[in-house]
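Look over this record before class:
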Amino acid sequence: MKNREKYHEKANSQIKKAGFFILSFNFLILNSFSILPVMAATEEPVLSVVHSQENANQWTGITDRLQTIGVKYCVIPLTDVKSGADWGDRRVLFLPNVETLTPTQAIALEEWMSKGGRLIASGPVGSLSAPGVRQLLRSLLGGYWGFSLSDTEQIKPTKTNIPEWANQTGLFGKVRGGVVIPNDMGTESAAVWNSKDNPAAVVTTERSTFLGWRWGTDAASSAELDNAWLKAALNHYLTAPPPSNRMKKVAGGSPNCSTTVAAAPRGQGGREAEGQRGSSSPSSPSSPSSPSSPPPKTATAPIPRALTIVKPPNSEAIDQLEQAVRLDVKPNSNEPIDNNQAIALQQELENLIGRVQSANLAVLANAANEGVVISDDKQSSRHPRTYTPQSVKQQPTQLASTKLGGLVRNKDQALAQVRVIAKNLPQLIAQKNYALARQQWLVAKTILWQQFPVDQRLAQPEIRAVWLDRGTIVRAASKAGLAQIFDRLAQAGINTVFFETVNAGYTIYPSQVAKEQNPLIRGWDPLADAVKLAHERDMELHAWVWTFAAGNQRHNEIINVNPNYPGPVLAAHPDWANYDNLGNMIPIGQTKPFYDPANPEVRQYLLKLYDEIVTRYDVDGLQLDYIRYPFQDPSAGRTYGYGKAARAQFQQLTGVDPINISPSQPELWQKWTTFRTTQVDSFVALVSQQLRQKRPNLILSVAVFPLPELERIQKIQQNWEIWARRGDVDLIVPMTYALDTSRFQRLAQPWIASKQLGATLLVPGIRLLSLPTIGAFDQLQLVRDLPVSGYALFAAENFNNELQKLFISTQGRIKSTTSEPIPHRQPFQTAAIRYTALQREWKFVFQNDPLERPAQKISDFNNQAEVLRSALNQLAASPSPSKLVVAKASLTRLQSQFRVLMSQELKSNSYQVKVWENRLVTIERLLRYGERRVQLRP
């Protein structure tokens, strides 16, 4: 720490000696380009420019062009970026030709942009970064660098929807660059290449502009064209309405600014987005700038202030879990594709076809039931067999058009083109044409994503939950601010909110049990307001609490306390702390200290705290998070759980201090693992028993890791299957976070198919961070095709306007005299309504499918289906043990004969038949859960 302080003192001294050279001339106005004088009214810089290893050898060209423009700017060395604040408080950030960002930097960039920052980027931004970073940058930039063009090409205006600010003659000319692949929604092409199919050269969104060439390099473009684009984009963001926003600074951004690469400040004490599960790895170590890189030509003045730097962990376990099931398809990569990968690619394409068909069939059946007339064009496109789904908004697919010779203009062509791609994949792989195989696979995925019916309601009654994180609550700042969040969630059809109530040892509300309310909350009880706001909107409010995690280094940084502060509870009761085998309260590479679950005082404190929450507030449920030990790796000698109470109790049981045993002693080690696992198991049972005595209708849920059971017990001592089988919890919410649907399915499928959960409902978690909007919808469609009753979204802070718009259309609140049931609250009513929707799909298929079926077969099927419908409706209207027996028997009878009754559909559309079987399983699970929940036993 002392060395770091000396470093900052020395750096500050050097900067003061060097001084800051501030240009005084006004911004050059070029009337021919209609560029406004963005700097005329102020001496403050408006732009931050990022220096990195990749653009170091281009720095002269970059700064020469900036000098010509005359705009004042600050330099941000990329190696110094550790948090959102480190991107600065200037409203516009320029990333020229930066190909590598760390996860920490990408997440910090998202945080910075969420506070009003605007981004201009050029070249293959992030193309050498980790897959998760590339996905996040894609959402921030509105697209991604697809591939380089082999020759210099003319940039020209797009024929339609060209942004007004980009309609300048000086912006177009010859450039050597690459094709930018735009996202499906919210992105405009500001310029296109004058080559086959006119792929995008520049894409723009409300928050960003992405230039498809290496800005600042003479080999790519002229200085005049580079400057014209930068000025146009810069003025667009600085002059956006309302006028008061023109020089608005980014809240929380560091005002520090340097004029040279060498003198750029290090370690700004900015805030890092916390509450992101599985956030990031640290930035790479700082490296000196290239000696050949001259300083920039313009400057500003504030002197940097040295603050403590808290390093985040090397990687979070949730990210490591996703890496194990990843299915990356890199454009233009010619790496060999082995047989397993080939099978996975083809299977995922077939699954995506099935999901698109399933979504469209649901829409079509609903429309037919409601008497909505659908055009012949839509009907043919959404038919469950001939099926080429309707795209609500046709979006050009530049990758498809560039590589396959034409855009899919006609909806009837979409499925045919995808099937050709799927058929050709094995041949391309056999010919070792791996790059083309990957490109065509991505084309097919894009075509299919465009066919999802995002303009029609298709959701059935389901759990639609979202984690409302502490950061979003703090930013709301008042009941009025919180009401806006609940309004958005309610409009989007969300019916369950996991409200972060205990975080890092602090309560979000003024507690008489906890040591301290979160210091970011002053004079306000957010929990009381949240309960009221949720219930006014027919939503459930579940208190989300950190159980055994007692503090958080990231939170310490935000509230500006010592990074090693263990949180208010452990600070007052150090004997309650847990330790690793090296004596560390916080395991190496992690950020959170933990309580000792074996300590009876810890257990008593937590029970008293939870009792206060559920008795003082009318919460509908309690969710236990961090209901585990920290991550360990026993094979590498990294273990945890050596709190004072645990060691004493284990030694009393076995005669051995656990600190002295290791995995090389299998019998003792197994006893030690079992001991720790039992501490967690017994605490869950205790919470369930005591809270339900006072609140019998309380819903208890747990946020858990979807690791294989044996591995999970060894690494974090979390055995949630037993909690489910015992009936301790109502909902298991596995954090099945993945950046694409195939990974999500691989993480979630084993637990969805599990027979080990008793009557407990499973609700897969979906992380919105880095997910494109249509990618999130794809994962939701998978959930709806599997035997589960809903989903949980992490987190509210990533719930953007695009998602809200899509959710309002597909699952938004419907006008009705009765509220839609929530599965965990009204399981029998949910089962009846979901079954009615299933019948509508069968009816539609039988009436519209050209296949010939024996009349007797259809009659037999309809009779059995009707018997089950009647039984479910009677159970929903007036639950009783006898009605439950009849409903279960009717369901079992239909399930046993379902494949025989659907034999013809099974041959032609096996995916859809499997979906229908899954939905029957969902109804079966709802009946089992309802039986336990309302205690209907014969």
